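Example record used in the benchmark description.
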Amino acid sequence: MTGKITGFPVILQQQLEWGDMDALNHINNVVYFRYFENVRMKYFERIGVMEEMEKTKIAPILGATECKFLLPLTYPDTLTLGASVSQVREKRLTMKYVIYSQKSKEIAAEGGAEVVFVDFSSGRSSLISEIILAAIKNIQAIG
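Model output (structure tokens):
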């Protein structure tokens, strides 16, 4: 990989922070999930989730997440994070993530998540709005 992540419509650059390293001198495994969260939120910003949530009180919550650790990350480094939606169902999305290390010029981790839309008024799962579905279709077509 040449440093450009392909197939991910939302890309985020992020610096590693010294304080995220653990006693073994690499970035702690839990931090990878924070990186996924950062790029997931960037994706949600791009499709208007927060604006839609303010109107409808329906928003995504994390139902499950996973990470395949491919190589340790060490300070200093610049990461390229990617997010995409790989599957859309009535009330949930499946997302894919990638973390690319600029220092090693390799993918450091791949991950995924099940994201469920919930109506916070009722506390129950909810259909994904047509506005969000159209935004996902549009952003995925660009990527």
